Amino acid sequence: MFPTAAVSGFYFSHPRAHYFGVGKIDRDQVASYAQRKGMELGEAERWLAPILGYDPDAAPEADAA
Question: Which of 18, 26, 45, 49 is the most buried (most CB within 10 A)?
């Protein structure tokens, strides 16, 4: 048996189910995630690249005081 054959099946949605999309995440959320997982910020940005709400190559904006 091929691995792809093991994951086949019928998928039905419930008429009362509500589906949602995941929004983009910001730099502070990625930094918190990286800290909790014990990884570097760059590595977390690489893994989370499809859902980043910012350009990881751009310098972070300084907070206006």
Answer: 45
- Quote the pTM value: 0.61
Q: Are 25 and 53 in contact (CB under 8 A)?
A: yes
- 56 close to 42: Cβ distance less than 8 angstroms: yes
pLDDT tens, per residue, the chain with 65 residues = 556 666 677 777 888 888 778 789 999 999 999 999 999 999 999 999 999 999 998 877 755 44
Q: What share of the chain is helix, strand, coil (3-state, %, to 5)?
A: 40, 5, 55
At 57, the amino acid letter reads: D
Which candidate, 23, 30, 58, places its Cα nearest to that of 44? 30
